[in-house]
Amino acid sequence: MAVTTAPVVVAVCRDGEHRFGKAVADEITLLEGLGVEGDAHAGVTVQHLSRIAVDPTQPNLRQVHLIHSELHDELRERGFDVGPGQLGENITTRGLDVLALPRGTVLRLGSRAVVEVTGLRNPCHQINDFRAGLLKAVLDKDEEGNVIRKAGIMGIVLRGGPVRPGDAISVDLPARPHEPLDRV
């Protein structure tokens, strides 16, 4: 019988500037409708520089970036030394297949914070500047040749609160039919 681990937060990160990676912190605070307090990507409207250039008025569906630590494990097995925050995520999880969650899933983090999953992170060329060849390692293809993006998911903050390593994560799936994640 396989032992399953209850989903948990293993690391939290933020950065007040637009850099590729984020610094690991003891705690972050999620702000309702904005994102991570003190993070460059917090805001009601889009904060990613490439998205601002296209349309700075579009809603920010990328307030919080979550990556499953199992991806870090996979990348280490492939020769890439990657740890929490280095791929730009705010929250690193364990025991939760974030890529399999449908759009609209609600994640309860710790005692108060609530995040709604909006879509997949679409990794860009900057990932190769961090580690040569890493972009190819976080992209895959399924049997039909469709691209599989493995670099985490994005969400919006429905209810603010502190998030710390060790916090439990509970998952509330949306009503069926489930809408698969797409890049946001």
UniProtKB/TrEMBL annotation:
One Pfam family this sequence matches: MOSC
Gene3D superfamilies: PK beta-barrel domain-like
MOSC domain residues: 23-172
PANTHER family: METAL-SULFUR CLUSTER BIOSYNTHESIS PROTEINS YUAD-RELATED, MOSC DOMAIN-CONTAINING PROTEIN
Name of the featured protein: MOSC domain-containing protein
Organism: Phytohabitans aurantiacus
Lineage of producing organism: Bacteria, Bacillati, Actinomycetota, Actinomycetes, Micromonosporales
